[in-house]
Amino acid sequence: MFGTANNKLLLGLAALFSFSAQANNFNYNALEIRMGSSPSTFGGEFTTYFTENTHFVGRFDSGFSGDWDLAGGIGFNGPAGQFADIYGQMLLHNIKYESSSKLGDEFKTEINIGARAWLMEGIEVNIRGGQLMDNDGTNSIFGVGGRFHSTEQLSLGVDIRNNGVYGQQIIMSARFGF
Asked: What average pLDDT does this structure show over 39-48?
């Protein structure tokens, strides 16, 4: 039907690399409310698509003792096969350690990369790694966890995370997709 061996080779290569034409496997339009332990923190995160493969990110976490970690920036996302996405973010943090100052004590930048995959229908596993950097040094960021998607609009998650500011924590969260 196609005639030449070159056409068959091109058709075969296009079928092999068809993952580039897939849509994202996860929704990046979401509002997340979370609670961390040891130290106790409360926070939230808002993400929304900018384009199909980029999204805006806004985060806030606090122990409500005059402290905060406020971050915002942009991220990328894309499929890595039929059941997984790879994503990353570049964020600017304003971190306040004491209740005496009006503005945060430090500004730091964060860069991270992660992956999300469907373990089975409704069960997601995720991993993220990166660095929180300033002129004085860097703190590593690491997280691993899972989410139960009860519906397309609601998922519940638990993570073991070190976000570079509050140290290692167990995080429980509820994410609302829109």
From this structure: 97
Partner residues linked to 176 by β-bridges: 31, 154
Q: What is the pTM of this model?
A: 0.83
CA–CA separation, 80 and 61 (whole Å): 30
Whole-number Å distance between alpha carbons of 64 and 166: 13
Helix (H) or strand (E) holding 124: strand 123-134
DSSP structure class, residue 26: S
pLDDT band at 3 (very low <50, low <70, confident <90, very high): low
Rounded CA-CA distance 86/45 in Å is 18
SS (H, E, C) 70-109: EEEEEEEEEECCCCEEEEEEEEEEEEECCCCCCCCCEEEE
HSE-CB of 146 using CA atoms within 13 angstroms? 8
Q: Is the dihedral of CA 64, 68, 69, 73 positive or negative?
A: positive
CA distances from 143 to 43, 86, 128, 147, 169 (A): 16, 14, 5, 13, 9
